[in-house]
């Protein structure tokens, strides 16, 4: 069992000191040397993208999770329609989530899966595992009313964090996403702009209040406007004076 089960509290504490926290998308097969290098450079959270693992057997997944015991962990099993590789029945995904929830700080589950959120709600709370309720739109940034409704929906499903990632097609889209941080609703937010025009949000939005920013590990190709880990670290060091100071 993890010593500190409150993922959001941990991240807020790190962010208060560093100015920004980077969740690094990781697959399986990381060596100790690779993990040490990523942590030394500034990886604050390991986002274990279990959908891209070579094996989904619970024991195998747990061994991979255990490699990252020194930092906060977030487990994601992203479905194909949300940009991931998971294409098995939802019942199987629920069971896999149950097998890993006792061993991670948080899980990311889509707002579009209310039955899954309901099925895991009490189990998560029993194991002090926080929930990031996520929404991804790879085509556009919806209107303000829709975006505000997403935040309300996340609160209604007892999420600890709302994550909204949308394709940005204009500076106005960026501005509307940035405005979400000014809402008074009591929930932590992760807001990300995707695409070329959204790239800068991955550096600037943590200063506005985004709990995390994301970057793929150096083993994984960046996509949807992501910034590679090495480049991200360089940019964050320029933008956040205390980032990387230990």
Structural account:
The chain has helices spanning 7-18, 32-41, 58-66, 90-100, 114-126, 144-156, 171-179, 201-208, 229-239; strands at 22-26, 43-49, 73-76, 106-110, 130-137, 161-167, 188-194, 213-216. Helix 2 (32-41) links the parallel strand 1 and strand 2 (43-49). The chain is an alpha/beta fold and 246 residues long. It has one domain (7-239): Aldolase class I (TIM Barrel). Strands 7-6-5-4-3-2-1-8 form an 8-stranded parallel β-sheet, with helices on both faces.
Q: What fraction, in percent, of the residue positions are helical?
A: 25-40%
Q: What's the arrangement of strands in the largest beta sheet?
A: 7-6-5-4-3-2-1-8
Give the C-alpha Rg. 17 Å
Shape: globular
CATH class group: Alpha Beta
CATH superfamily: Aldolase class I
In total, how many beta strands?
Answer: 8
The total tally of domains equals: 1
Whole-number mean pLDDT:
93
Largest sheet: 8 strands, parallel
Q: Structural class of the helix and strand makeup?
A: alpha/beta
CATH topology annotation? TIM Barrel
Tally of helical segments: 9
Unreliable runs: none
Strand content: 15-25%
List the topology elements.
Elements: H1 7-18, E1 22-26, H2 32-41, E2 43-49, H3 58-66, E3 73-76, H4 90-100, E4 106-110, H5 114-126, E5 130-137, H6 144-156, E6 161-167, H7 171-179, E7 188-194, H8 201-208, E8 213-216, H9 229-239
Parallel strand pairs: 1-2, 1-8, 2-3, 3-4, 4-5, 5-6, 6-7
Briefly say what this structure is.
The chain has 246 residues and is an alpha/beta fold.
Features:
TIM Barrel, alpha/beta, globular, 9 helices, 39% helix, eight-stranded parallel beta sheet, 246 residues
